[in-house]
Every structure is written in C-alpha cells, then in structure tokens.
Amino acid sequence: MKILLIGSGGREHALAWKLKKDSAKEIVAAPGNAGIAQIARCETVNADDVDALVELSKREKPELVVIGPEAPLAAGLADRLNDEKIPVFGPSANAARIESSKVFAKELMEREGIPTAAFQVFDDFSEMRAFLRADGKGLPWVVKADGLAAGKGSIVCPDSFKAQFWGSEMLVQKRFGDAGKRVILEEMLEGREASILFLCDGEDFLALPIAQDYKRAEEGDKGKNTGGMGAFAPASHVTPDMLSDVENRIVAPTLAALRDDGDPFQGVLYVGLMLTADGPKVIEFNCRFGDPETQVILPVWPGNLPEALLACAEGRLKYIENPDPDSAAVCVVLAAKGYPEEYKKGIRLRFPKKRIDNTLTFHAGTRMSEDGIVSAGGRVLNALGLGENIAEARIKAYALAEELDVRGLRYREDIAAD
Ligand code: AMP
Ligand code: GLY
After folding, report:
1. Are 302 and 234 in contact (CB under 8 A)?
2. Over the stretch 304-348, which tens digit does the pLDDT of each residue have?
3. Which CATH superfamily groups domain 328-410?
4. 151 in ligand 2 pocket by Cβ < 6 Å?
5. Which CATH code for domain 118-187?
6. Cα separation, 274 vs 70, whole angstroms
7. 0.90 surpassed by pTM
8. Which of 70, 214, 225, 288 most suits a substitution to test ligand 1, by most atoms within 8 Å of the C-beta?
C-alpha cells in the first residue's frame, strides 16, 4: 500500500515506523522530520497548508492518506480529500469539533449523559468573575480555552483567584487568541488518568492498547501542562470491566450522537479519562492519535496498521482483528529546556553509535541542517524502551534517554515509575 502521511512529530515517526513494519510498500510524508526521512520520502509541504496537501495527494495518488495532527482535520482536509475520492483516514471538520471545540464536546456529553466533569461556559469575563465570587470560592477549578491550543489551553487552578486570573488571561488578554474567546470552567476531578484510543469507521470501533500519558512538565506532576512528557502502555490500571464501561457509557453514545447529527466519526477517537471514585469520566476528546501515546501504543499492538486504517476509511472495521498487546513500552520525551514556554531551537543532537537493544528513537521536533540533525521544536526526541513488562521497558527507555541527552535538552525522571 502507498501511504501519504501528514505531520512532523514523534507521533508521525511512530506511525511511519509501524506502517513500514506492517509492510506498507511506500510512505510519503508531508512534511516529516529528520527521523521520518530515514524511512519515508519527505515532501516539504506544511501540515497546515490544506490546499497544497490536496494538490500533493492528487499528484502522489496514495492508496490512503493518514492525517496525524488536529489542525488540518479541523481545517477540513479530510472533507477535501473525500471530495476528490482519495481514501483518507481521519474525521471530517464537523466530526473533528469533538476536539477543536471543547464547548461542542462538553455540550454533546451533557446532552447524551456521558460522564464528565461539571462545567460552565463563559464568553464574558465579568460574568465568570461574578460566578466564581458567588459560587466558586475556595474550590479548585480547571480553566480551559474552547479552541485548539496545542495541549496548553487547560489550566488546573488550586483556587478561584487563580481561576479568575486565567479567565482574564484568556477572555480579556487574549493569551490564546481566538481559541480563548470562550472559556470552560470545570470542576476538578480526582483520580488516575488514562488515554484510550479507538479506531472508528463511523459505525464500529476498536480499542487500541491502553496508555498513560504524563502531561505536566516537571517530576511529580508539577509545572505547566505540556503536549506530553512521556507515556507507557499497556496501562493495567484500567481493568477489562472499566474498558467495557468506557465503551458502553462513553464511546458508543458519543459516536452515535455524531452519526445521528450527520457527522459520522471516522479516524481515531482519543478518550482522555480520569478514573474517579464514581467511575471513569471524560477529561477530553481528541480527534487523532495522541502524542506521545502513539509512540508506546503502536509498538505493542500486534495488529496490522495499514490494513486497519484502510478498513476505517472504507467502513469495514468489523472485519479487522484486534490482538492483545504482546509486550510493554515506555516513552521518555526529551524536550528543549524551557518547554512549554520559551525555548531554543537549533540545538545540535547526538545519536549513540551503537544501538541499544530493545529501544527505538523517534524524532519529534528535528530537522536536517548543515551541522547535522538539530532541534526544530519544543519536544525534540522520544526515547522508547521495549520489554516484557513496564519495569523492563522503563530501564531501556532511560538507558537510551541518557545516551540521547545533550546540553539544552531535558526529560522527566519519573515516567512509568508509579
Ligand atoms: P485537557 O487539555 O482537557 O486534556 O487537559 C490537560 C490536562 O489537565 C489533563 O490531562 C489533566 O491532567 C488536567 N485536567 C483537565 N481537566 C481536568 C479536570 N476536570 N480535573 C482534573 N484535571 C484535569
Ligand atoms: N498526549 C496528549 C495528546 O496527544 O493530546
């Protein structure tokens, strides 16, 4: 199968690796990165440039286009490719609102009785402040920008003062631009998190191995929210009973609601969960593979990825096998110092000469330069360890992270430690 893969992060490197491993004949990436370039032909078309991506798809005539990031999905790339009759894995812009508008997602969940944190929506700061002064005093809150904010638009606030500050940053100071024109004020949930990614063909769905992501920048889940500083899979704290509960009470009704509204969801439905004392509740939905969850899910999933993704695009997922994970993986993200705030790009990277067994290096923000491979983003490299269990995989991941570490990068020391 010839595949055109859109995106340039660690997630796309993992997708390219697994597609290739499962015998994809040819992979073209747009734009890709320095690691993806080692297994695919990279075309310098930006993942946000929908017109140029449609042109590239018409020129390349892939048997399947796989869209990695949310921005082109929200901008309607899948709709445009469907119009051109080019097979595509990824939801329409309307279905992608499940991620591109948190207000859309919360209202859908409220309407369908899907378990999630209680919430209020505000587009006016004085109303938000009045609500917090009257009802919200003393409570912790989570303040969320409605639109896309690269995983940085949710702020956990220990009290109502902090929630007011962030409400003002979003609604008045426009810190997140248009993405923060509407703000969700959400009850803080307690529990352990898990990410479950479901392949969906509009009708049927299947659960990939369950992962846990580490979103905060610092050890001990301190510091700012990031796109994700590490992950592991499979996550056994989600029991088979909990998974059934999630499928029956969350995934099936969400997909049915989208379908009934005329926007069947085809692609990956990413369900971010808090496992609370009252059962699993949705923290967020994404309309795409998670990053860095994908980096740990795909290496432990023995299924055939090109076949499964094409089956989603063609509405025949029910014929696809879903074998249980056959190993464990831990991913440690090496990020530029300062990420997710100010950080340097162009850091020269160094790769171990000798391969460490049971490890993989996925590139996230990297590019080729005259000086060799340099950093080109906040999250730079992914050190992936594999093993029979999480403890083994963790040792491997950290052995590789140590080798890849250079001045200017940093990583969390406690990924998969608990
Ligand atoms: P989101 O952007 O909605 O995925 O949120 C990013 C992170 O913020 C989540 O992974 C959680 O760690 C935290 N978070 C978001 N919403 C809540 C909530 N209602 N209660 C507790 N933590 C939350
Ligand atoms: N790791 C979280 C995300 O992909 O949104």
Report:
1. no
2. 999 999 999 999 999 999 999 999 999 999 999 999 999 999 999
3. Phosphoribosylglycinamide synthetase, C-terminal domain (3.90.600.10)
4. yes
5. 3.30.1490.20
6. 22
7. yes
8. 225
